[in-house]
Write a structure and sequence with these properties.
Protein name: Aquaporin Z
Subcellular location: Cell membrane
Radius of gyration: 17 Å
Number of strands: 0
Family: Belongs to the MIP/aquaporin (TC 1.A.8) family.
Order of helices and strands: HHHHHHHHHH
Shape: globular
InterPro entries: Aquaporin-like, Aquaporin_transptr, MIP, MIP_CS
CATH topology: Glycerol uptake facilitator protein
Keywords: Cell membrane, Membrane, Transmembrane, Transmembrane helix, Transport
Distance between the termini: 19 Å
Amino acid sequence: MTARLAAEFLGTFVLVFGGVGTALFAANFPDPENNTLGVGFLGVALAFGLTVVVGSYAMGPISGGHFNPAVTLGVAAAGRFAWRDTGGYLLAQFAGGLVGSSALAAILSGTDGAFAAAHEGGFASNGYGELSPGGYGIGSAMLVETILTAVFLFVIIGATAKIAAPAMAGLAIGLTLTLIHLVSIPVTNTSVNPARSLAAAVYGGGEWLGQVWLFFVFPVLGALIAGFAYKALFGPTAAEG
């Protein structure tokens, strides 16, 4: 179990450091008004997807490569993970995410004004209403986070089933997360992962931290819906991992 928890910690660290780091350092470079070198929404979406691809192949054989509390709870609901082990996984994921965002904060402090600007801009946190990139309200945020997390879990459970091609699972899961970001960055800045949301909101502070509850509740709801529904829809053979 120690090795599994260490793998979840490291995988979540990489996800937050790579994905949130891309949003903070490279999405708009040198600045939003003169974005001549920035990667934009597409680059951020790819960054999050790539973190899952590399994490899945590097850490997946050790821990299963969840890196996300919603994933852990969803696969437990599907009967693919022991409920008794969920607490340890969740603690490792939240810790890895917070260390990842803390490392980003330390790097931002290396140049004048960068940390203050990132904090003022929300530190790539998730939000709704005035804090949504596109101004989408709370109902839109609830729906998109629930639906897309459910889609994510359906892909994860299917791609890692015994009847699937295991060598391709990491790629399929990472590309799905990229697609999810392409859909929902304008709506909520994309969570589908409570550990990622808390890691950023701690440094966004204020209103951002006040809205983080939604990005705990609705990703978990979507994951549980998918987890409980998968075996009922596709049968026990398809759900075996």
